[in-house]
What does this fold into?
Amino acid sequence: MKKLFTILFVLAVVAASAFAAPKEIVFMDSQSGANFQQWWQTIALPAAEDFLGVKIKYVVGSDAEIIERMKAWKAGQGDITVLFPKSTALFIKTSQVQLENLTTAKVPNMAKIDPVLQTSTEGVPVANKGAAYWFSTYALIYDSNYVKNPPKSWQEFYDRRAEWKGHIGFIRPDAKSSGGWRQPFAFLNAFTDFSKKFDPNAADFQAAWARLKDFYTYCQLPLAAEPTNAFENFNAGDTWITVYAMDYSLWSARQGTMPPTTKAMFLDPGIDAGGQAYLVVPANIPEENKQIAYKLINYLLSDDQQSRLVSTMWQYNSTMINDKVPGIVWEQIPKIEVAKKAAIPPERVNADAIAYIKKNAVNIIPK
It folds into this structure.
């Protein structure tokens, strides 16, 4: 009996140690710009470390590099616990990498996420492969020192393009920033119906494409290589108006890298949502790391953290807790209901059209 007890005790210890919580995990980020890299390193992850009692190593990478890294993993040996991808759609579509299914059983606070955000990303079904962390939106960004009467719609922006000729700050379509394709996608959406099966030879799309080509000639040339170049042009007084991420633009104005007179508003009939940002868990990682991953994501979706996100970073929370957000926030940015109404609806976020823009828009920019 004593021998049997000893064996059972040893087996219990072995089983417990097999799933012992790791002392350190890796949070890999290929999504964030300078503003959110600062957020993760100085606010969100230090708070999570205290809450979870585990060290979180913050690492920045690129989607392409991470995918190649994940392809080489053997089952249970992956070293990235939580991933914050630039393009969750790309990871979902890449058959050689596997992501965990995230459910409310694993991450209870996912029940608070707006269901619309869990539907699709870049036209690709999310299928529980990620948990929406924020709702990012593009907006018309303008320097009110130069633009006194901003356009209220894409049609008006196009019709009045001559007023701002040489001062419209679009980004090159082949930029690393997703703004390079999001800007033309939002523009084209105003002039063609992306809810239909995409046909690049369709007459309405070709007409919209011709408008885009023409619109590029009214932009500041050469087009900005990356957003940082566009911001530099704003600070120099050369760029007056653009369409870009609202949170980053307003944060940059606060940091002094955009003019203090920078303002934001939405355009009708739609501004690109900027793509919801998702937290995902790779499948080929140790089981004990998965358990920590679920707890970390659940913490980041907590009411406190989501409220702090929008209050600090002007980035819309993914969870439906707006009644818990300080009222002063809505004095700085439009309420999330306004942003969602202005966003291009999911059924018009056409993955084939996006792929076409990524490949071909560079061919129509002025040389």
In short: The longest helix spans residues 34-52. Confidence is low (pLDDT under 50) at residues 5-18.
